[in-house]
Amino acid sequence: MSSKISRRTFAKVASTAAFASTATTALSAVASQPGGASGASGTSAQSTGREFPKGFLWGSATASYQVEGAVNEDGRGPTIWDTFSHTPGNVVNNATGDVADDHYHRYKEDVQLMKALGVKSYRFSIAWSRVFPQGAGTPNPKGLDFYNLLVDELLANDIQPFATLYHWDLPQTLQDSGGGWESRDTSKAFGDYAGYVAEHLSDRVKHFFTINEFGAFVELGYRIGIHAPGLKLPAGRFNQTRHHAVLGHGLAVQAIRAKAKAGTKVGLAENMTICVPIIETPQHIEAATRAARELNAPYMTVIQEGKYTDAYLTATGPNAPKFTPEDLKIISSPLDFAGINIYTPTYVRANSSPLGFIVVPHPKSYPHMASSWLSIGPEALYWGPRHVAKIWNVKEIYITENGCSSSDIPAPDGTVYDTDRVMYLRNYLTQLQRATADGVPVRGYFLWSLMDNFEWADGYTNRFGLHYVDYASQKRTPKLSAAFYREVISRNAVV
Ligand code: PNW
Fold this sequence. Notes:
With 495 residues, the chain is α/β, with parallel strands linked by helices. Helix content is 41%, strand content 13%. The structure holds 4-nitrophenyl beta-D-glucopyranoside.
């Protein structure tokens, strides 16, 4: 290298000019043939020892309001996200989910994207207000029809449907009548809706998730106010809202058990705080394990244990939730599996405080993906399922979401070379493989997301998809990460 060119300049010139400009290839040429790269060839990656267990279920995920569009079709009732996104100032560029990915009309094409990836399962959510436009009362058969069609299309393509019953699009009527999840009536209505859906879909849908991310929609929607319904409730009312959310989950579990066909399984999809020991020593591991119980006290812990931890009740004091022993029994109704959404780590160390742990905040220089909250910590995918298996003896675990946002600008050849997403996924999957190798019973993984979509308050600015969506034309184009994921699936190994 000429001494006049700095190392950084050299790297930049080499990567952008010399190589990228010759990359006229489509992604099919980037990825090797399925299964063709194993073995002793000097050019193939070594994947021996990085395999996932036989039968590991690879999938991808989306949610109704983020992809469907068609908000005024076939009798769908308005939701808190329609109201929130249509209120100026709430979402970046005042974007809404009115059209989103138009998945409501393009679901067949989208199932083909899944088929090309090789996923064997798809996690989608059902829009409550399509099925019960008023949240309760008279069902709307046309609303359920869409999910009947989607499920049939998935099964015809050998893809197992995993349905989430609540991914944040609460019928507006329930918000108007009693303050949404602030009211026990919403918990009750949710149970009834869940039972109705299970009754009608469980001949073909064998896995249901009750609620997606208590830890996000309750906190962001009712305490911080940056998600629908945009409230900043005082502590007492807020903690009661948390309680009604877990109660709604429990009522839904009971209703599904009562109405679904035999063999139907039910669980939840929670974005637990993932406590990672700062160093893997016995003391820090023990501290992280204690932290995992305490930092998830209002949701996962009460669901698994049927009690709020003493520390949670002490900390909330006069603002603690009001509940009966019967509530706790409902909330902790036995589950068939646990789903965990995992994006970021929370580092924990042992200390001499009464609880025996303390959270170590991320330093200012800590790296994150395009979304500023999305701190990179692959070990979260090891410690999350390990804690759940160890603390609560859960025998069947799914990673119900993992993935990342990236700037995703198409190259001149039209492809998004999202090497940063591939880096993120490869590192996280390495830690997930480590968990399975250690005997943690992780049965499947749903990558968020199948395609770019409405990213809540960020609108369409943060892209999480394996497929790039041109929102003007609705064209979907596989990114480099789609080719990577296809390779992982076909080899059932980290590649
Ligand atoms: C999850 N945070 O949301 C949701 O389940 C998806 O609907 C969403 O698109 C995806 O993750 C990516 O954001 C989260 O601020 C939103 O920590 C925010 C946070 C975590 C998860």
